Amino acid sequence: MGEFGLNHIPAKNAACESGPEGSNPSLSATKHRAQRARCCYVKGSAVRYWIETLGCPKNHVDSDKLAGLLESQGYLVATSPENADLVVANTCAFIEAAREESIETVLDLADVKRKDARLVVTGCMAERYGEELAAALPEVDLVAGFGASLTVPTPVTLRATALPSFDLLNLPRPAPKAPWAYVKIAEGCDRRCGFCAIPTFRGDQRSRSTSEILSEARALVEGGVREIVLIAQDLASWGHDRRRAGRGEAIEVLDEGGTQPLIELTKALTSEVDRVRLLYLYPSGLTEGLIETILATKVPYFDLSLQHASRPLLRGMRRWGDGARFLERIAAIRAVEPDATFRSSFILGYPGETEDDQRALLDFIEGAQLDWAGFFTFSSEVGTYANDLDAPVAHELALERLREVSELQDVITAKKRDALVGTSQELLIDAPGVARSVRECPEIDGVVHVDPALIVGSMVKGEITASRGTDLEAVVA
Fold first, then answer.
1. Separation of CA 387 from chain center
2. Contact predicate 368/330, CB 8 Å
3. How many CB atoms lie within 10 A of CB 149?
């Protein structure tokens, strides 16, 4: 029935939230983190929709844009999928576990929705496996890639594989529900990492213009947002595709004397909102100028897409860098800002991985002392370079290696969190009783528990009084 496991109803799985190519957090929490609902009235009758989102923050932005599109067509919020007239599953297809969870979610929605409600599957699985998915899931009314109508009652189908007639990127989005928001500044990716299939169904990078991004950011700020989190598949390369497309001179990020458009965008956003956070930075794009710009935002948070530390294995992944270069860059940042926060993600079990490679990664984890890290076993993806590589690593061995590095990182993260006890931190109140300092990215890292009476959206000074695993506790004078 296909490569994403449609022969059975899969058990619940934890996969990567943003996947190995993105940041790193676990997808294990997507069910309770990513359920989003909207609904509406059309010509006086209640027509409601429900969007359930799986996967990375980029998918969350897509769901917001879908919600904005549906609201522009007259839809309002449903309280649950059982009460919706239109039920949408925005799926993730990055690795096997994510695909299994997406299929399970679609089947769960089919079980609970009303008999006359439409069930639509969109997102990465629809983009990548549309025809196969439609054939395998008779419970679904429509399998639609982005750019197709979700509401016209057409037979189950998939749009052509060409780029959509519109991008979700520039659609309006609903009013923010929290004092922070993701802003996706580009779609697709120009890189061809050995393990990543994203370019095969999302296409090459397509950057939004500065004016489009600033317009969306200003609307979010007017709605109460105080922190904007910039996301893209390869954030540091934002704007370079626009140059290659004839809108300027082609400039590689690392070229001496070249410019990096993300620097100017970040500076512009810093004047618009209290906090600007950057996610998914390819390591070669972390230039001195970008480091200075990030530090100037007063959010010294560096989310680096590293994937491994062994130079030979990284070359096998078709990626730049090695542990020594990464450590040098991290040390340089800490020399300027000792309190800088670092997060990354790593793949275990990539084809050809050896015990020497594992030792190199363990040595790097020990030396880097990252605040946060996620670890994922390799998932072979059709259409990628790694899918045809020899020397596969047994899944059991990959899991053993993952446990080894995870245990080491858990100790480091716990020590990092313990060290914050007794310090004073500026906290953004995200929800009653829940806050974050600049050290925690929303929905990805731990949180800071505070008095539930504090006003959501306010920024307060709090003293960290306790560490509870990845979370902290604070009191506000």
1. 23
2. yes
3. 13
Tell me the CA distances in angstroms from 65 to 182, 301, 346, one per residue in order. Answer: 11, 26, 30
Strand order in the sheet with 301-307: 301-307, 341-348, 372-377
- What's the Cα-to-Cα distance from 299 to each of 308, 339, 386, 439, rounded to whole Å? 25, 10, 36, 8
3-state secondary structure of 353: coil
- Is the pTM here over 0.85, yes or no? no
Structure tokens at 138: 């008779």
User: Can you list the alpha helix ranges (DSSP code H) found in 279-336?
Assistant: 288-296, 311-316, 323-336
Binned at pLDDT 50, 70 and 90, residue 242 comes out as low
Task: Catalogue all structural domains in the chain, each as residue range(s) with its CATH number.
Answer: 27-143 (no CATH), 168-414 (3.80.30.20), 424-476 (2.40.50.140)
Residue 392 is classified by DSSP as P
Residue with tokens 């489009």: 212
- For 418-475, the DSSP string reads HTTTT-EEEEEEEETTEEE-TT--TTTS--EE--TTSPTT-EEEEEEEEEETTEEEEE
Q: How far is residue 475's CA from residue 477's CA, in Å, rounded to a whole number? A: 6
What lies within 8 Å, CB to CB, of 169 at 6+ separation is: 65, 184, 186, 187, 206, 208, 212
Poorest-pLDDT segment among 123-137, 406-420, 432-446: 123-137
Token couple for 63: 């769901």
Q: State how far the Cα of 52 lies from the Cα of 109, in Å rounded to an integer.
A: 9
Handedness of CA 143, 147, 150, 153 (dihedral sign): negative
- Rounded to whole angstroms, the Cα distance separating 305 from 283 reads 6
Other beta carbons less than 10 A from residue 78's beta carbon? 23
For the ranges 2-16, 96-110, 172-186, 254-268, the lowest mean pLDDT is seen at 2-16
Q: Residues 6 or more apart from 160 whose CB is under 8 A from it?
A: none
Q: What percent of the chain has pLDDT over 90?
A: 54
Q: How many residues does the chain have?
A: 477
